[in-house]
Sequence to fold (145 residues):
Amino acid sequence: MDIIIIKKEIERVMLEVANQNEKPDVIMVYIDTSYDDESNIVPFLNVFGNKTLDNEDFDEAIKTASKQQDEGFMWDVLDEFYSSTFDINLSVFYPQWPNNFEDSDKKVVTFIKNLLSKEMQRFEHIRKLYFFHVDSFKFTKIIDK
Fold:
């Protein structure tokens, strides 16, 4: 896979989720693994667009999820209306998967931050954007308003 193609796909999905009619206020971007076309276990980028449910506190929910090691606390306060799951194979970002993934995470987060900077107006309604690995409970804040 070509990194330029993968970057374009990440950009397409991020812009698509941000520009939904429902206007998400929380975007969750996370790494999960699955099999690629050649039956190798590889990291995929999953993106979810969400609205925080009325009278719910997402900040408190994510703290509880981390403390209790249970993502359910976080997802329970969100109404998901957009998802891209297991469509973006990140092998080009993670050539030594599952080793040395911290450096690769930085590259993915930096790419997303640069996209947000370039397309600031299209993401202005987003209050929260987090990056994480499924079941890791270490959430990287990318947007926190």
